[in-house]
């Protein structure tokens, strides 16, 4: 009954603070839509140039096949030489280009490899990598489609699993889920307890017959429920807005999300034991969640490309493990044996956060 009373009190307090409630509900959907549409690693309508030195029917068929992929790139220029193509890329007029060398048709007819050069502006590594993949795929598929004469010109075998369209939304949405949930869960929990300190009601709760575990559960369970509802809304929005479904088990997805939310609530509890004001709690929460979840979790930037010391530091970021588990469940459809290590870390991390938070609150006299 005591625990139910605290939970009921917390829900009433949440409902009274309509501005905070509106922010908690609106912010996740806002971040999902903004990041989902604004942060894109896809290549769309990239301007290309083609240098056709061979000028034969085979080279024209190759150009036509490349030009057909209007979704990814547009052939907007036909420079006379590689030097002109390079200058146009250097000036930023083109993002890449193709050079079809002399004797392309003759080499194809003779059964020899007919090389085709691909030039890509590498100032944006992610886009350059995607563009290179699109161009390679287009040129490879153009040979057998165009004519039997060029069937042996290119021998590149490409197979893409789990995301054959190379759509970045399917890669980013799991990261967005972790990014949004860790921020909302940690901040809401930290501010809730610190607010009690500022109002002086924390001392009254500590002096009441409530046990410490009942007080902690009463303060965290409502935000666990709210975060769970937010998570369900984000997954639904990801499916309807970006067509990112769940290839694996829904139960597994719910279980991993629950463990991650508990770990995030534990982090919020620990922050509340350090901060004395809501402003300080908010700043600490942002520093502990926003930057690590965005930079060190593999959300946007591949961890494999980071320096060794940074890669080591990423092992302390819970969002890294949640994102890894989400991508396994949502994209590859992997079973529990594919992500049990991630779940284990999140469980240990959450237990450590709750334990440290309770110890600190007791030392400070906020818990008896």
Structural descriptors:
single chain; 368 residues; 4 strands
Secondary structure blueprint with pairings:
Blueprint: H1 2-16, H2 18-38, E1 46-52, H3 57-67, E2 73-77, H4 82-90, E3 96-100, H5 104-109, E4 117-120, H6 125-146, H7 168-199, H8 201-207, H9 212-242, H10 250-274, H11 278-295, H12 308-314, H13 318-332, H14 340-363
Parallel strand pairs: 1-2, 1-3
Antiparallel strand pairs: 3-4
Summary?
Helix content is 66%, strand content 6%. The chain has helices at 2-16, 18-38, 57-67, 82-90, 104-109, 125-146, 168-199, 201-207, 212-242, 250-274, 278-295, 308-314, 318-332, 340-363; strands at 46-52, 73-77, 96-100, 117-120.
Describe the fold and architecture.
The chain has 14 helices and 4 strands. It has helices spanning 2-16, 18-38, 57-67, 82-90, 104-109, 125-146, 168-199, 201-207, 212-242, 250-274, 278-295, 308-314, 318-332, 340-363; strands at residues 46-52, 73-77, 96-100, 117-120. The longest helix has 32 residues, at 168-199.
